[in-house]
Amino acid sequence: MTEAQHELGPVSSLKAEAVGQPGSRRFRLLVEGSSGGSAVLWLGKEQLFNLGVAIKRIIATVEEQHRAHARSSAPSESLSDPSSGRGSSVEFQVGRMAIGYDEGVALYIIVGYDTETEEDAIPAVSLVATRDQMDSLADEAFAVCAAGRPVCPLCGAPMGPEPHVCPRHNGHKMPEA
């Protein structure tokens, strides 16, 4: 597993949620490590949606590789010391994230970097999750992102709670730069 400031190890819970009213929501991942550590990772809506897309892609890639290389050996059970995240709690705004797959333990890895983190710094948090946990997180991320304001079928802009002025419906158009 990747070295990080807060290593949560295997997770017992990995959830996506939105806080606030549509139009002014904030998005976050809630992580509970099996060893007692926890994290609240604040994301933008686009970050959460793109995380869901990336998870679905990596799951599909890993499954395709497994079908192509039908392995006969069982995955090893050695992980980095999960007790390093025991009891710790961290909360931060995510600047960037990375996901990967560790064939040695057959688990997916997520690392998150704080917005204040330098390019070459170690991640603020790292965790590992099963395929089912990751797939469920991706589905939940899509549902949370879609639960906001409806989009206008004509222009694609979010509608409400204020009246929607659609440039394609009523002739109003923003001047082109």
What descriptive keywords fit this protein?
single chain, 177 residues, alpha/beta, Secreted effector protein pipB2 fold, 2 domains, 2 helices
What does this structure look like?
The chain is of the alpha/beta class and 177 residues long. The chain has 2 domains: 141 residues, 2-Layer Sandwich (Secreted effector protein pipB2 fold), CATH 3.30.2450; 28 residues, no CATH class. It is 23% helix and 31% strand. It is built from 2 helices and 6 strands. Strands 1-2-3-4-5-6 form a 6-stranded mixed β-barrel. Strand 3, helix 1 and strand 4 form a beta-alpha-beta unit. Helix 1 runs antiparallel to helix 2. The radius of gyration is 19 Å and the shape is globular. About 8% of the residues have low confidence.
Provide a concise account of the structure shown.
With 177 residues, this protein is an alpha/beta fold. The protein has helices at 45-68, 131-146; strands at residues 6-19, 26-33, 38-43, 89-102, 107-114, 125-129.
Q: Quote the CATH topology of the largest domain.
A: Secreted effector protein pipB2 fold
Between the first and last Cα atoms, what is the distance in angstroms? 48 Å
Provide the helix percentage.
Answer: 10-25%
Low-confidence stretches: 72-85
Quaternary status: single chain
Radius of gyration: 19 Å
Output the strand order for the largest sheet: 1-2-3-4-5-6
- Label the CATH architecture of the largest domain: 2-Layer Sandwich
Mean of pLDDT: 84
What's the total number of strands?
6
Q: Helix/strand-derived class?
A: alpha/beta
Name the beta content range: 25-35%
Largest sheet: 6 strands, mixed, barrel
Q: Give the total of domains.
A: 2
CATH first level of the largest domain: which class?
A: Alpha Beta
Spell the H/E element sequence.
EEEHEEEH
Cα shape: globular
Count up the helices. 2
